[in-house]
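Q: What would this complex look like in 3D?
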Amino acid sequence: MAEPDTPPRTSDTAGQPSRVDRQRRIDAPPGRVWRVFEHPDLRREMLGGDLDVDLEPGATGTFDDGATTRPVRIDDVDPPRRLAFEWGAGADASQVDIRLVPAEDGTDVHVTEILGGRPSSHLAVPSEPTALALAA
Amino acid sequence: MTTDVGGVLGALADPTRRLIVTRLSAQPTATATELARELPVSRQAVVKHLTTLRSARLVRRTRHGRESRYRLEPEGLRTAQRWLAEVEAAWDARLDRLTDLAEADGE
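A: Here is my prediction, written as structure tokens for the whole assembly.
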């Protein structure tokens, strides 16, 4: 079932402007949902691109959506509960956190993506893209 | 004129800069000194953050004599909002497909 649309975020634009939260109830147990992440073909279909990376914490790879390729680094893998990764580089890097919570008739999927660069230093890209842009 | 989405979101990723944007949204203009009085950081730090916000076109500086005043540039925030809406739509589409794939997989 689709969740109702997230209300307009006019008021919190300045508060949490670079965070996206989505939620969905799926009528399948967490193990079946997790299989989609593990199976390369299902994963590609779900993500709309090829996530070429081992599902191991610290593994690095790429995500290719047919138009662009971005670096990916796996942060956490906890089957069938949590998959967390970073993708993108520099100021366009973001952290994705997907959590599967067992629900009465299936699974609640929570997705959080935090945009606007990376607080950590996982990917081999300039660490302060904003500052570099300023200096240029 | 294009606004660099990554730069806007990067500028807004910092909590102090978000506070500055919040303060500026509550008043037409402010000086760095006024902002520093309202925030738990030094005037020097505020000036540095304002430079980043100006670079991302979230804030505009106007000079009144020797005084620099800063005001919010709404276009930058609109750019950030549009980008967030696109990211949300992309995840909604992925969750649609995840639902189909997980619910169809009866093996």
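A: To summarize the key features: Chain A has a mean pLDDT of 79. The longest strand of chain A covers residues 69-78.
Q: Very helpful, thank you.
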